[in-house]
Write a structure and sequence with these properties.
Blueprint: E1 2-6, H1 11-26, E2 32-36, H2 39-45, E3 52-55, E4 58-62, H3 68-79
Amino acid sequence: MEIKILGTGCTKCKNLDRKVRELVDSHNIDAEVIYVNDLDEMINAGIMMTPGLVINNEVKSIGIVPKNEQMLTWINEAEK
């Protein structure tokens, strides 16, 4: 599984990156977590507000830091 956090380095972006990595570690999820700060990649993904959360090339959230429960639901759905 590939999880991307797309962000510019703002506080919300860093917070989402930290939360995703903690969830992956604490739930023993086999995933590669990548922080992307390339503006071209963000635009190509349709991310116009940061942070963006992309799981297996599917945009899950834009401009917010989702609750842990919601992120776990998306991760579990992507594992199937």
